[in-house]
From TrEMBL:
SUPFAM superfamilies: F-box domain (SSF81383), RNI-like (SSF52047). GO terms for biological process: SCF-dependent proteasomal ubiquitin-dependent protein catabolic process. This is FXL18 protein. Gene3D superfamilies: 1.20.1280.50, Ribonuclease Inhibitor. It comes from Neopipo cinnamomea.
Amino acid sequence: QEVVSEESEEESNGVNLMEFSDEILLHILSFVPCTDLVLNVRRTCRKLATLCLDKSLTHTVLLQKDYKVNKDKVKQLMRDIGKEIYQLNMAGCYWLPSSTIDHVTRCKNLVKLNLSGCHVTSLRLSKMLSTLQHLRSLAIDVNPGFDASQLSSECKATLSRVLELKQTLYTPSYGVVPCCTSLEKLLLYFEILDRSREGFMLSGQLMVGESNVPHYQNLRIFYARLAPGYVNQEVVRLYLAVLSDRTPENLHAFLISAPGSFAETGATKNLLDSMARNVRLDALQLPKAWINGSGLLQHLKFNNPFYFSFSRCTLSGGHLIQRVINGGKDLKSLTSLNLSGCVHCLAPESLFRKAEDDIDSSILESLVVSCCNLRHLNLSAAHHHSSESIGNHLCQLLSRLKHLLSLALPVCSITDVAASVEKPPTAPNLVPQTFGRKVRIGIQTYPRNLADQANQKIESSVFWALMGSLRFLETLEIIGSSFSSAMPRNEPAIRNSLPPCVRAQRVGDSEVAAISQLTYLQSLTLAQLPNILTGSGLVNIGLQCQHLRTLSLANLGMMGKVVYMSALMDMLKHCKCLRDLRLEQPYFCAGAQFFQALSHCSSLQRLCIVSRSGTLQSDAVMSFMASCLEVIMCHMFMGESLTVCKNLQQSIVRSFQAERPALNVVIFPLLHEDLTEVIRDVPMRHLDEITLFKSRVAEEPPNLWW
């Protein structure tokens, strides 16, 4: 009776939600998906019916990660508020049929439209754009079969007014670029495969009739990202040919992201020479072959740069200081810097230097002082070994960057120099990183709380101090310099990887525990930490980092056994906000205990497991899918037979596809020869964001697209 009376008293003294001011209610409603607001919430009462149609809530409609939306909901949404929508983002809605696009024609006042990842034919695009006379920003895919000659004159008139275009190419084509005569921002994503499904080699030469080239006279931002492959390089050269003839006077951002070798030609050299003479840049990224060994950086002029990427270049620290940051001047505006794979960028010169030699702390200090407003910094894929000088450790210098939101570091850069010099390797590291005895997981041998960890050693380490100083960090990547994923793009699965360097072999549980100080951490990547013995630090992260949404773990501890399984399962029980989980570990057992722990992640949407010789229990997977209702992506590349994988994939699709329209399931043997063919059918959103491993810090300029 006492309990009942207390509850009644609380209810009588409680505040009715409807008593809040309209401003507060509008702020609360802004966190609700637009489809729910319009189709459900607004039908609850008169007040909410009015508020849910407020312009602040209907001006911008985001459907890009609303995995529950279907064709009927989109149709009803456009019918109810189509005229009120000015910005519509449907990026990555791969599950919606192409006929869904027809309903966008109701949005007569659209200014921005993102259809990347949606199925749009030339005729549908023409019909839709013909009605959108106010459109100024557009993102689309260009798929095989696209025919620009099918675009109507009304459609071309709309395109002529478009100022921003993002175009993802899956076939050699100019797409709609020649029609966009007023372009100020052009983003190109080249995803063309070298071979067709039938095995025929593709050509990068564009079809006759498409040579009415792009119009770049008003261009301010040019960005091109290439997937691996020769055809992509051929096609992007055709886009660049026009730029080499006449460089736009207002160009202030020029960015080309190309993996592997992308040789410089006479045309590209003319383009760069013209840029050096005629423009002042705010953002720059070039293929490594265009920078290595050239004096280009010495001649380029910069205005108020906000983004630099010298990924995989052989740029030395001396050149970086002299030619880029101008001796420590004029770089307060720089907010994002990508030096991933620049093995000599923190050394005075690269001619006689070995990759694992100590860095020059004075170069890093100059960088930190001159770029004091950095928010995104990537130093991964290189051996940045600090010297024994007191106060000059890489972690100590980086702790001065108080504005950092995302950071990527190599594993070997975070170890204490004194500890690595004085202490011999621990016993487990003397065991070859191949096969090992099975581990008992019934007894937990790791410390149960943060205090136990602190007593071991971590509070005095330089990495612990760094994590303590970057309290607002949202994204952290700690990746081994020698790490390579077992699932590279467009290639067979890698069977062997290079061993970590000596300093990296000291990084383990205590360093992972230090990460738990990052209260606002949202995304965490840990790869190739060989000294993980129990994974105890993961439990601390699960307890302390309650905002964690994305977790990627790869090759932790010894390769012959999953030593951190028990700690991982304990961690997952606390990750209530986790949405994306990627695990890459040989011999991983995805069994009942693992999936039972994973079921505590009630917000989980995407799961990817990559495991050479890994095993799975089909019944456990099915039970997990039934209990976690938000999961719409399940990718598992294991050591099971093709028959087992196919049967499980079919069972999941058959059981859950109807109620989860966005469901994407790929279960396939990791070392099967047809893996690359299977990968090409994965929606680009999932492939780029989670399935393929890569460093994502400062990968692109911030706010490149809305």
